[in-house]
Amino acid sequence: MDTSIPTKFLENILKINDINLSSQYDRYLNYWPIFLFGVLFSFFLLPLIGKIALQWGITYKPRTKRKNREFDNPEKALHDKETPALGGLAITIPALIAMILFFRLDPFTIPIILAFLVLIVGSTLDDIYNLSSKVQIGYQLLAAAIIAISVIDLSYVSFFTNDFLNLTSITWSAKIFSLPLSIVFPGDLILMFWILLCINSVKWVGGSPGLVESYSLVIFMLLFVIGIRTFSLFSSSISLLISGALISLLYFAFPSPKIMSGSSGKSVYGFLISILALVSGIKFSTTIMLLALPIIDALYVVVYRYITYKPKNLLELMKINDTSHLHHQLLKLNFSGKQILLIEASVSLLIGSFAILSTGALRYFALIFGIASVIAFVVYINFRANRREKTKEESPESKYSY
User: Fold this and answer.
1) Region of poorest pLDDT, from 226-230, 247-251, 395-399
2) Which regions of 29-115 does DSSP assign to beta strands (E)?
3) Phi and psi at residue 3, to the nearest 5°
4) 74 preceded by a cis bond (ω within 30 of 0)
5) How far is Cα 16 from Cα 9, in angstroms, rounded to an integer?
6) Which of 338, 263, 292 is closest to 85 using CA atoms?
């Protein structure tokens, strides 16, 4: 599906026209300037962003209920001091520059850039003004809709083999200001739902310092490998640049954090993962395995909150903000922030590696085994954590504790 056209600038960096490659590994090593660009750009930008965030009070304060968040739960904060937000801008700004600088502006890249800008602006305003859940889902829907009406269509889905499930019962095309539009049904409706699921499931990972950064780093590195294998220049270039930028951010966000991604990062990582996976043309089963941990955790949390709080509608359900996520349950089992980071990143790396190494019938068994393993892991951790909390509450000594 990748129809991106590189600029001469990118061709010169990667030496795309150089046919004297000594080995297959040169396909990966040729991208080192892009990786270095991401590392350095982010590393020097982060202290500046952190200083601005502190000066303007755009920070996360532990054990403090934020304004306009009627369902906010101060207990969910796992950082122990006031920490600047907006760290995600050190990822999104170089990625945006790369999209414009490395690739020609055409019907493929323009919608991605526009949707990307909508999320950057909306999520940055969320960091500043603590936007309501209704506004947040609004700009997420707008970004997803921009992709859905563009030439980037979800026309078919392939799970394990080369047999495709056709999603083009109805098709429509038009032009606006010479920019072609295309809608397929039900494919693009499913695409919008998938983008929203990816945005919010990855966003919900970011409750523990350094966790969403380390998890996203693992996934973007795997997407780089997939992009090389599927000859997707857009996916491989952008995913590696973001990986380099995330390494710099992780250096500052590692517990105890000096800066955090904030909504400006958490709300964008999932979007980029969904888009880069889509344009790589990889099978849907592979994408599911890459995102298995956050998606299963998100679904578990949604079901738990629905049963526990009995919200009246979907919007009220989305407003609920408690400590039922996997990282909070691991914390209840006395794991430290660093241990939580390593556990979840390792699980994601293991399942994601299965996804890109398995082919044919083996991918079917890898998907079943991977999903079953993640479900069992999430359920077991929640069971152990809830059991420990219940034991603590029933303990006779607990009423004398201070």
Assistant:
1) 395-399
2) 59-60, 83-84
3) -115, 20
4) no
5) 11
6) 263
